[in-house]
Amino acid sequence: xxxxxxxxxxxxxRRIARGVLIAxxxxxxxxxxxxxxxxxxxxxxxxxxxxxxSVTTATxxxxxxxxxxxxxxxxxxxxxxxxxxxxxxEWGTEPDMLRARHIGFxxxxxxxxxxxxxxxxxxxxxxxxxxxxxxxxxxxxxxxAAAGGGGPGRAVPQISLDRLAATDARxxxxxxxxxxxxxxxxxxxxxxxxxxxxxxxxAGLALGPQRWAVEGHTGPLDALLAGAAxxxxxxxxxxxxxxxxxxxxxxxxxxxxxxxxxxxxxxxSAKALAPWGDAAATVPLPLAWQATLTHTPGQWRAxxxxxxxxxxxxxxxxxxxxxxxxxxxxxxxxxxxxxxxAGLPALSxxxxxxxxxxxxxxxxxxxxxxxxGQARGQLRVGLPPDAxxxxxxxxxxxxxxxxxxxAVRGGARLFxxxxxxxxxxxxxxxxxxxxxxxxxxxxxxxxxxxVGLVGRAASMDRDILARLIDALIPTGxxxxxxxxxxxxxxxxxxxxxxxxxxxxxxxxxxxxISASGEIxxxxxxxxxxxxxxxxxGLDLNPGSLVDLLVLQGPLDAPVLSINPRGAVRQAANxxxxxATGGITLLAPMLRPLSGAPSSCAQAEGKPAAAAxxxxxxxxxxxxxxxxxxxxxxxx
Length: 635
What we know:
Blueprint: H1 4-41, H2 44-59, E1 63-65, E2 69-72, E3 77-87, E4 96-107, H3 109-113, E5 116-133, E6 158-161, E7 163-175, E8 182-193, E9 199-207, E10 210-218, H4 221-226, E11 231-239, E12 242-250, E13 259-267, E14 287-296, E15 299-309, E16 312-321, E17 329-339, E18 347-357, E19 360-370, E20 373-382, E21 390-401, H5 402-409, E22 415-416, E23 419-429, H6 433-438, E24 441-453, H7 464-472, E25 483-494, E26 497-508, E27 511-520, E28 525-534, E29 549-554, E30 559-562, H8 565-571, H9 574-580, H10 599-604
C-alpha cells in the first residue's frame, strides 16, 4: 500500500503528455484553418492590391508590384515583393520616382483583420529613389492623397509604419530637367520608433569617395506618411575630415520642400570637398559654417551666417531665389572684422553686398579698412558661358599708411611716414591675374604725400626700388632727413599698355623727378627714363645729379642703367621716340626750374593753377619734354 502513489506517477505523466499532444494538434488544426481562411480572405493578389491601394491613397501616386509576391504566416505575417515601383510626378524625367529590387513587409495580423494596415517593418534592398525639381517651384517629393479619398462610399484603410530599413539603395537629385543628377549611396539605413514619439535613425552613406555615418532622431514615421507640415529632425553626420549637424523641421506630403533648421558644417580635409568639384577642393581650410536655413517655395534663405575659412571669419545673411520664369539669383550681405589677402596688408571692417545670377556677379558696394585708410568701390563680373570673365572695377582708397604698404613688400625699410591715395577705374577680361592685367583698359592713379626716406638699404643689390632711389638721390646727400613732398603714378591703360608721358613724378624740396616711357602689362615689360632737375634757389649742385636713369626689361627683373650726358642729349628726341614707339627719353636740361607747373600736378593731369602757385610774370611756356615749375622757396 505504501508504494501505490509511486505506481500512479507514470500514468499521470502519460495523461498529461496526451493532453498536451491533443492541444497541439488542435492548435495546429486551428492555425491551419486560420491559414486557409487567411489565404482565402487575403490571397497574395488581393493583399498586393490592398497594399497598392493603401499606398496609392496615402501618396497620390500609383504603387505597383511588378514581380512576385509571397506571404508567410509564421513566425509573423510577412510579405515579400520584388520589382516594386512608385510612380513619379507627371512632369518627371523618369516614369518612376521609386523602384526597389526587393521589399519585405511585416504586418500586424490582428489589426489587418480589423481593416488597419499596420506595417511593423519594411526592408528594402536595391532601391532607387529619384528626387527632382522642374526649376519652377515644383518638386516630385511633394506627395498628396489621391482625389476622392479612395472613391465614394469606400473606407480608406489606415496605414502606419514602425520601422524602415534599407541596404544598397541610391538617392539622386536633379535640379531642372536639364540639370546634372547628384547621387547618394545608402549602404545601410535603419529608422525605427524610439518609444518617445520620435524615431531613431542610423545610417551609413557614401557621396562619391566620401563616407558618412549619420545618427539622430526624426519625427515618427507615421507622421512622414501622413504628410506632416513640420517633421522634426535632429541629425549628426561625420566623415573623414568633416562633420555636420541639422536641427529643426521639414515639411512632408503637400508641404514637402519646406525646411527650417539650424545647420552646421566643419571641414578639416580637402578630401571631404572633392565630391563638389575641383573648385570646392581649393577652399581654404579649416572651414566652419553655421546658419539658420529656411526654404519656402522659390527661395532659400540663410540667416545668422557664421563662416570661418582658415581662421578668417565672415558673418551676414543670404538668399537664393528661383521662381518660375526667372533666373536663379543669389543675394548676400557679408561682413568681416579682418580678412587677409595675399600681397596686401590685412583688411578690416569689411562690408560687401553680393548679387549673383547666371552670367553675372556684382559686389557693390564694398568697403574695408586697409593700412589705416578707408577703401570703397564696386566690382562687376560678367561670366559668359564660352568666354573669359569680364571685370569692371572701381576703387577709391584714401589715407593709407605708406609704412604698412611697404611692410608687405618685404626687404629693407625705405620709407618713413606718409599717406597714399589710390583711385582706379578699370575694365579687363581673362581667366588669370596676368591675363586680366594684360587686357586692362582705364586709369589708375596712385598719389603719396610727405614720405620720409630712411637710411641706405642693406639689400641694395637686390631691391630695384632701393637702387632706383639711391641712384636718383644726389651724391653726398643724406637720405635720413630727405622728405618726398609728393609722388604720383598715373597709368592710362589701353589693352594692358600704359604710355608714360611725365605721368610718373616725384618731388622733394630740392629737386623734381619725372619719367616717361611705357609699361606693358601684356608683355610684362617696362621701359622708363627718369630725369631729375634742381629747384631754383636751393643749394644743390646740378652736376651732382644723375643725367638720366633708364629702367627697362621684364617687370620682375628690370635693369637700371645711367646714360652718359652726350648720349642722352643726342637720343632725347621726342618725335623720333614717338615715331618708333620706343622709350621717350628725357632731355638733360639740368638748369633750375622756372615758372613751369608742379611735376606732381602735371603727372596727375591737373592744370597748372591746381598747384596753387602764382602764375603772374611767368615766362611763356615752352614745349619742353619736362615742363618743370618752381617749387616753394627754401626755408
